[in-house]
Amino acid sequence: MVIVRSLVWFAFGIVGGFVAAHLVNKDPRGQELFAQLDSRISEFTDRMSDAYHEQETRLSDILDDAKGVAASAAGHAADAVNHAGDAVGSAAAAAKKTLSPSD
Asked: Which residues, 6 or more positions from 32, have their beta carbon under 8 angstroms from its beta carbon?
């Protein structure tokens, strides 16, 4: 019952808002008020959009840098593994040569 009553009051509020806006818009001062309001809202949304795109670009640059660093680190790690494998192979060959009976 409380929910229904709340929904009815909500609907009355929406309808009342539309009626009030319609009445205010009929007056030239009301039209000027709505024009100013529209201008301010447009300015706000433009600023928000610009800030969003600026932040998006900034984060994209950071991600690109991080990808480059990760790729470089992966390359260095691969080189280190290859050098370690070569070192192990050389050590194994030296140990085999040392432990094998001489002819």
From this structure: none
State the Cα–Cα distance between residues 6 and 37, nearest whole angstrom: 29
**1-17: per-residue pLDDT in tens?**
889 999 999 999 999 99
Sorted by sequence, the CB contacts under 8 Å of residue 82 that are 6+ apart come out as none
**Contact assessment for residue 34 and residue 25, using Cβ atoms and an 8 Å cutoff:** yes
DSSP per-residue letters across the chain: -HHHHHHHHHHHHHHHHHHHHHHHHHSHHHHHHHHHHHHHHHHHHHHHHHHHHHHHHHHHHHHHHHHHHHHHHHHHHHHHHHHHHHHHHHHHHHHHHHHSPP-
**pTM for this prediction:** 0.52
Q: 37: phi > 0 → left, psi -120 to 50 → alpha, else beta; which?
A: alpha
Indicate if the alpha-carbon torsion angle 43, 44, 46, 51 is positive or negative.
positive
CA atoms of 29 and 37, how far apart (whole Å)? 12
